[in-house]
Design brief:
The chain is mostly helical. It has 6 helices and no strands.
């Protein structure tokens, strides 16, 4: 089952909104105009589109057939567990005194997880095709 470009764009709309909200909140939080509760709300404004993105992904995954669900699950596990391993390795290097300035931020973790997911998707598709 191939997914059209339009369907893919529609599925990832909330992810795009979350990224835009994240950039906006970072810019907004650099100024000292906000304090207290409004500052927290600006920092958390990315959570609403992120939650809507999770809901869209969940609904999409539920619409897949059994084989596609398995492929997506394997790719997702590879991406998340691979990122967990990378985060652990970097944290251990930091603990040992190396790479003290290396930090990903949530955007970096998201990007690394996404690229590992794509790698897992390629591997899973090779196995089942």
């Amino acid at each position: 089952m191939q997914m059209s470009v339009w369907a893919s764009l529609k599925l990832n709309t909330w992810a795009s909104v979350a990224v835009i909200a994240a950039f906006a909140s970072r810019i907004w939080l650099k100024s000292d105009d906000l304090a207290g509760v409004p500052r927290v709300l600006v920092a958390w404004m990315v959570l609403v589109p992120a939650a809507l993105y999770l809901r869209a992904i969940y609904r999409w995954a539920r619409s897949l057939d059994e084989m596609q669900r398995r492929i997506q699950l394997e790719a997702l596990c590879f991406g998340t567990l691979g990122m967990l391993f990378i985060a652990l390795a970097v944290d251990l290097l930091r603990l040992a005194g190396f790479a003290t300035s290396l930090t990903f931020g949530w955007e970096g973790y998201f990007a690394f997880t996404y690229f590992l997911y794509i790698g897992g998707l390629v591997m899973a598709n090779r196995r089942y095709r």
